[in-house]
Amino acid sequence: MKKLSLKETLFVASMLFGMFFGAGNLIFPASMGQLSGSHMWTASIGFLITGVGLPLLGVAALGVSRKEGLLELSGGVGRRYGLFFTLALYLTIGPFFAIPRCATVSYTVGIQRILPEADQTLVLAVFSLAFFAAVLFFSLRPGQILTWIGKILNPLFLCLLGILVIRALISPMGNPLDIAPAGAYEGAAFSTGLLEGYNTMDALAGLAFGIIVVNAIRNLGVQEPGEVAKQTVRAGIFSSLLMALIYVLVTLIGAQSRGIFEASSNGGEALAQIAEHYFGRAGALILAGTVTVACLKTAVGLITSCGETFVRIFPKGPSYRFWAAAFCVLSFLIANLGLDAIIAYSMPVLMFLYPLAIVLILLTLCGKFFRQDRTVLRWTIGFTSAAAVLDLLRTLPEGTRNFFHLNGFLNRVSEMLPLMKQGFGWVCPALAGLAAGLLLYGRKKHSLSERP
User: Fold this and answer.
1) Which of 85, 18, 27, 15 has its CA nearest to residue 342?
2) Which stretches within 267-395 are classed as H helix?
3) What is the rounded CA–CA span in Å between residue 309 and residue 93?
4) Using an 8 Å Cβ cutoff, are 58 and 203 in contact?
């Protein structure tokens, strides 16, 4: 029976890390470090749970389930739900939010600061066109994704990031313990860190990327399902350890920067200040290269994953090449709306999808205890969905909430539903749905055992 060597496992883990870790994964921990200050370690624990732990569980769930992708995995709840959830998830981490964000973040953090006097609208259009042309070039060669991301783009990214991080650690700007936490981090650092991890979208990506990892392992000669599952989890662990290390280091240098700088409006600005402090003008170039490579490799993974999934969902429809090109074009158009518009509406969608993803992952991993019974799945997902809609409405932009007169209703619900104010209003309904599902499953199992 074929098994991966350590070298092959590390290549697969590098590929998985490369698809996970984009510029957003740098921006959010840097901002968290600046705002959390002396509470950075508490906030980091929360961030690592949702930013590292959940993605690892997502990859593991797909590997352990031995399913052929998210559609089949979520289809255990029901065919229609599986189709809805799969489309919603892939469009969110694909052309609607995550892929356009790759281009706009790399532009905002890198190019915009190098060319501050230029016509930014025109420069963004030119940059995003070149960016997605490169993404399409790599994406049209999905069979070489292990080489492109795992062996070329990812090592380049790590080298560029390492230059900045090592310099910052050698000459720290301040001591995080001397920095007072700001905002929500002052009294709720852990839960704020948990929600900050949502912004990475990596738990959603874990469910999407799992099948790419499975296929890469199969292409390396591992065919036995149990061994594929084992190697998938193994690669996921290696990838998660590297992600956790970088998150902690970036959070730390963000917190240290408060010894000199005030908290920035976003993590991109914070990283730019840090890079320019240590390297001057060259720092802007290092940061631009780091961010652009990070975004490029993530966008390639997302386009590849989305394209292959849509081919499976619509087997009689267009080819993979069509979907890859279409998603690149759509992402290009949305990217030119600007980073602020993308971020404003991504958070409500994430607040809806994340609870559903978390519950699906946990139910899959614990499914042997109730034999993946559809009754349990439906009741748990059903209750979770209802609460997740409330979280979606609560995090809509203020103008949208005011337009639909939602504030009064949401305030009343927040008083009644535990943890909703903290962003976890779905937890109690999910547990209630699970209890109801298990009760009905137990009754059904008991009635079957009594039949002659």
Assistant:
1) 27
2) 267-279, 281-313, 320-335, 339-365, 374-394
3) 13
4) yes
171 φψ region: left (φ > 0), alpha (ψ -120 to 50), beta (else): beta
Q: How buried is 14 (Cβ within 10 angstroms: 0-12 exposed, 13-18 middle, 19+ buried)?
A: buried
Classify 373 as helix, strand or coil: coil
**What is the C-alpha to C-alpha distance for residues 24 and 100, in angstroms, rounded to an integer?**
12
Residue-level pLDDT at 61 = 85
pLDDT in tens, 354-368: 999 999 999 999 988
Q: CA–CA separation, 291 vs 25, rounded Å?
A: 10
Nearest CA-CA partner of 166 in 31, 37, 264, 279: 279
pLDDT of residue 170: 93
Q: Which helix (H) or strand (E) holds 413?
A: helix 407-416
d(CA 265, CA 337): 20
**Cβ neighbours of 60 (radius 10 Å):** 22
SS3 content of the chain, % helix, strand, coil (to 5): 80, 0, 20
Q: Could you give the domains of the chain?
A: 6-344 (1.20.1740.10), 366-452 (no CATH)
pLDDT at 15: 77
Candidates 304, 347, 341; CA nearest to 108 is: 341
Token pair recorded at residue 185: 């981090």
Which of 304, 22, 14, 18 lies closest to 137 in space, CA to CA?
304
Return the C-alpha torsion angle 36, 40, 42, 48, nearest 10.
110
Q: How far apart are CA 324 and CA 304, in angstroms?
A: 7
- Give the HSE-up count for residue 283: Cα atoms under 13 Å, Cβ half-sphere: 16
How many angstroms separate the CA atoms of 177 and 28, rounded?
20
Query: What Å distances lie between residue 398 and 262, 265, 352, 402, 407, CA to CA?
Result: 26, 19, 17, 6, 9
Structure-token pair, residue 436: 């109801």
Query: pLDDT tens across 217-226, in order?
Result: 888 888 787 7
Residues of the chain with pLDDT under 70: 1, 23, 142-151, 153-154, 446, 448-452
| b/e burial code for range 343-376 (CB count within 10 A of at least 16 → b) | beebbbbbbbbbbbbbbbbbbbeebeebeebebb
